Amino acid sequence: MEQIPREFIQQLLERVEIVDLIDARVPLRKKSGNNYFACCPFHNEKSASFSVSQNKQFYHCFGCGAHGNAIDFLMNHEHLTFPETIESLAKLTGMEIPREKKSAHKSISHQSLYDLLTQITQFYQTQLRQSPIAIQYLKKRGISGEIAKEFCLGYAPPGWDNIRQTFGNATTLQPLLDCGMLIKKEEGGYYDRFRERIMFPIHDKRGRIIGFGGRILETGEPKYLNSPETPVFQKGHELYGLYYALRANRQLTRVIIVEGYMDVIALFQQGITYAVATMGTATTANHLQRLFRHTSEIIFCFDGDQAGRTAGWRALQQVFPLMRDGIQVRFLFLPDGEDPDSLIRKESKEQFEQRIQQAVSLSHFFFQALANQTDLTHMDGRARYVKLANDFIHQLPDSFFKKMMQEELSKKAGIHLDSLQPRAHTKTLNPVLTKAKPPSPLRLAMMLLVQYPELAQCYHEPLPQLELKGFDLFCELFNLAKQHRLTTGSILEHWRGREEEKLIVKLAQLEHMIPQGGVENEFLGALKQLNKLAQTLIIERLLAKASQQELSSEEKSHLNQLISTKIV
Ligand code: GTP
Ligand code: MN
User: 373-427 maps to which CATH number?
Assistant: First the structure.
């Protein structure tokens, strides 16, 4: 992957005004001080809980917890990847992204692959129009001419040499190999990967063609042939149909994951425009993470047979660690022998959507599948059930959903909740909600510094030396804020992708009751506490040493000095 220098990203953030950026997309109204409000664009609401701080260059929704800097906003609102967001912001501010020579080459060659694949798609489309048997096949499968056109369906004609003949020259041979359209023969020479197949171009989210799936016309092996993994096509990331689903509706209320190309297309033709499919592989956690950036509800659709149930269980294992609050996952098992393509031809759109409505919840499927794996009529079977379930539930991120699953298990197994969770009652509550106990001075200082980085300028002493968890992070933050002009938004950027990112984000969002005028005093007060703590620790250490052995004269005078200047 090409690297955009971090320094450039920070400069970019300095140029972008988050208030203008958001206001152009979600009209803001000014309310208090430097804060602006709107109804949150990331969840449905009637009152305005979405707040944008000009000082902090940071947004935060009190309703759904969405938050971040200008980059996060654009990424989430426009569904862009990180590099795409940087490109878009760079364009907006008229800045040029500095790139290394090597990566410039790489991005050019990516572009040439996209271009080639687009031309090949057009070639296959032309071939389709000229092939009565291919047209006949699509007709037989009920695909309208309109939909075939919309999904750019095509036909790879018979023959081993069409692509090389039509597109191969000295400069395109390597790209044709790179994007998987040609295969090298062992004895030298090349041949076409796809022959006599209906061609389904695969678009990435932005609509660029990145590969193909090809279906054999009648019977034969393999039924479907897909492009191999290439620099522009990664099967573990891409979802067939996502581009079309997003084009039909930018804000997807739900997405249904089906098994095949034909399922996506048949559903789309009947007006169900939110289906996607993986390409001959199982759904990965990466697929799901990408989908959750566009929707809060995913419905897995499987055959009703045993193979479908097994696939469902595999999908459940992938999705479990991703189950934060606010997202929903359900499972739809179709009648035996049917797939969405065959069903939607027999049933109306409404009937199929009714099935979607009735899809079972994740928790329902989970407990049912576990019960089927164990013999609940015996005690050791029940014990196994509880253990299996409990191990799974522990994988869930801390959330209300996790709590509910634990309660459900305790109800089902007739076991007290406490015996299910030896580490009970830790970390399950949202830290913003647990502000009853006063924060430690370190946490307070860190929170203030994240929210008001300019505070670093009003403390002039050297920082104390402390062996405290999190203190190194504080020092790094302090020194950074001392040397650069930062905002909360740019601090977040500095820690993006790092281990401590979560903590920084949490601190950025903590609500405190300190009035604007008192912030500096609170900060200096917290630092005083930290200095005092450091001093006390050294005094204690020296006194402990003195009780064992005589201190050196240096140590004695150090101790005296510490005691006489002791901070109270
Ligand atoms: P139709 O018979 O055209 O309706 O396809 P289907 O989608 O009903 O078939 P199936 O359930 O067999 O396949 C589902 C998906 O699995 C397809 O869309 C392909 O992505 C993939 N697939 C099916 N057969 C093959 C194969 O032989 N090789 C590979 N790599 N993938 C396949
Ligand atoms: Mn089918």
Answer: 1.20.50
